[in-house]
Write a structure and sequence with these properties.
Elements: H1 5-19, E1 22-23, H2 24-31, H3 35-47, E2 52-54, E3 57-59, H4 63-69, H5 74-85, E4 93-96, H6 100-108, E5 115-119, H7 122-128, E6 134-138, E7 142-144, E8 149-151, H8 153-160, E9 164-169, E10 173-175, E11 179-182, H9 185-197, E12 198-204, E13 216-219, E14 226-229, H10 237-242, E15 246-249
Parallel strand pairs: 4-5, 4-9, 5-6, 9-12, 12-14, 14-15
Antiparallel strand pairs: 1-3, 2-3, 7-8, 10-11, 11-13
Length: 250
């Protein structure tokens, strides 16, 4: 039986998580579509940063890819991070989830004093550990190289021990229809736990993430305080987002 595109993409990501690598021929046979169709699906998923195409198939994204993404849209991410840091008061408790923009928030907190920072992000930790004004708590957990983050029950339990005034979350894609999305179930669970332990929760994401969709939807927009993004949103996107949550455009 032929599977529609959204269903195929979900199945591809599920199998990739389980098997670690996929072939075009096996996917085409199992999903009842042509190899040309599967190649198109893999191309679209690669453009979203969800996998890496190989000769005859696909593999998961790697550490190299997130370090490459750290170099993308740096100016925009710097503005977003500065706007996020401006929402943090001295002596506040802050949670930072995984993601390149979240990691830059840690760097932008240099002017704050007495900040208690809880994060599951190795990138955020690298930025925060050199700042003597930050008291940093790095969660334990299973290290996921694809996102440079710690996930799983240990990370979730560690986060659950703390209360924060504000949490900043990353995402692989966001939209009014699907909310916040990510490639990995474990990352979604960590982000949801942070949201439950914080008085305010802000998504920090550049406009290129709008309309993209990761494998897992984990928070609808009306369950976060707001979104901090840049002015590159497509026409009508700002109004659509503001029907569900606050929007800060930098």
């Amino acid at each position: 039986m032929t599977v529609e595109r959204a269903g195929r993409e979900s199945e591809i990501m599920s199998r990739l998580s389980d098997d670690g690598a996929l072939t075009v021929s096996s996917l085409a046979a199992d999903l009842g579509v042509s190899e040309v169709t599967i190649r198109g699906d893999l191309r679209a998923l690669e453009q979203q940063g969800m996998l890496v195409r190989t000769r005859g198939g696909a593999r998961p994204t790697t550490l190299k890819s997130i370090l490459q993404r750290e170099q993308l849209n740096v100016e925009v991410k710097t503005r977003i991070a500065a706007a996020a840091a401006a929402k943090v008061r001295d002596e506040a408790a802050v949670m930072l989830e995984a993601g390149t923009t979240c990691a830059m928030v840690a760097r932008a907190l240099t002017a704050r004093r007495g900040i208690q920072l809880v994060t599951n992000s190795a990138l955020a930790f690298n930025n925060a550990r050199i700042n003597p004004n930050l008291s940093v708590i790095l969660t334990g957990g299973v290290f996921r190289r694809e996102s440079e983050s710690f996930v799983g029950p240990l990370a979730e339990r560690a986060i659950g021990d703390f209360n924060a005034r504000v949490a900043f979350l990353g995402t692989d894609g966001f939209s009014p229809e699907r909310g916040l999305t990510t490639r990995f179930v474990e990352g979604a669970q960590v982000a949801s736990t942070m949201r439950n332990r914080a008085e305010e929760t802000w998504l920090v994401a550049d406009s290129s993430k709008f309309g993209q969709a990761g494998f897992v939807s984990f928070l609808p927009l009306d369950q976060i305080t707001g979104i901090i993004t840049d002015s590159g949103l497509p026409a009508g996107a700002a109004e659509a987002l503001q029907e569900h949550t606050q929007l800060c455009v930098v």
